[in-house]
Write a structure and sequence with these properties.
Length: 120
């Protein structure tokens, strides 16, 4: 499966997973100019959650969590700041989560990490 379709499948699984946890999905694939993209923006109680999704079929390029390196984290923070600014959101508790989808054939496991970056 080509990378884009594989990533889209992972994001679809992540949305279903977050919905099962009663997250309210606000936006998918929010792009802020050339700065970057946020895969999923959701609400979890009082928190606005910026969620990065990584889909893996093997660990050739490292784990999904390892892919969210310092450079990627800075990019996510900058895109989130853009989202907050555009939508005039202030005084809102925010956090960054990662949802990692690890495929093994047709089966997959989901890893969910909360608070991978602290914005506020």
């Amino acid at each position: 499966m080509e990378n884009k379709k594989f990533g889209d499948l992972g994001e679809k699984i992540a949305v279903e997973y977050l919905n099962s946890l009663n997250y309210n999905i606000v936006k998918k694939n929010f792009r802020f100019g050339k700065v970057g993209e946020l895969d999923i923006i959701a609400e979890d109680g009082e928190f606005l959650v910026f969620c990065e999704v990584k889909t893996r079929s093997n660990d050739t390029y490292g784990s999904g969590l390892e892919a969210i390196n310092t450079k990627k984290q800075k990019q996510l923070v900058n895109v989130a700041k853009g989202y907050l600014s555009i939508n005039k959101i202030q005084e809102r508790s925010c956090r960054f989560d990662a949802v990692i989808i690890n495929f093994n054939g047709n089966d997959y496991e989901i890893e969910h990490y909360k608070d991978i970056i602290i914005l506020m």
